[in-house]
Model the fold of this input.
Amino acid sequence: MDKAKIKVQTFLSQVPLFNSMRGDELDRIALGTTEVRLERGQMVFERGDACVGFHQVVFGQVKLSFTSAGGAEKVIELIGPGHSFGEALMFMGSPYIVSAQATEDSLLLHVSKPAIFREIDSDSSFAHKMLAGLSQRMHSLMCDMESYSLRSGTQRVAAYLLREVSDGSDQLTLPASKGVLASRLNLTPEHFSRILADLCTQQLISFKGRHISLLDSAGLQRCAE
Done:
């Protein structure tokens, strides 16, 4: 995709939430959509800011996180191309409960609340798709909570690596720094690094920087169970 210029309707038509819409419906949504271009490290919004719509990632990556009273950052989610964030709070009329920061140069689309509400009022199937998307996000968060509560650090890391190469490849590049991923998996950076080193010692993986090769997927699967 051309990073210099995009046609909003074209991108929206490729997103599951909007891909069944007619051209005139996409035109209406596009009228309430603005581009947000961000450099790496730039904030999308801060915790406590008003939520007046939701964001869709065209390219790049956004980190959702909050900071504890002691100053420690907890990464909630990493949002990549084709995925969105902020829908639930948009419906609740509540301010953001997390902060959002670009982890690399990114382009987002911000879809305004009025544009979404107009389509919901005129098309019940669109409302159903919004609910399905929110339910899927809730299911994912519940699975994360189960993983953090019931699974060991090694199980979490092994499952994460297998999920990242679900296309059948045995190569992956970590989408963020080890510190960010450790927080995402509810681990300390030191514990995350020890687990990677241990998996390497067992000859299940090899890694150099953020590049990881899976040497024994079956063995890694056993570690994840």
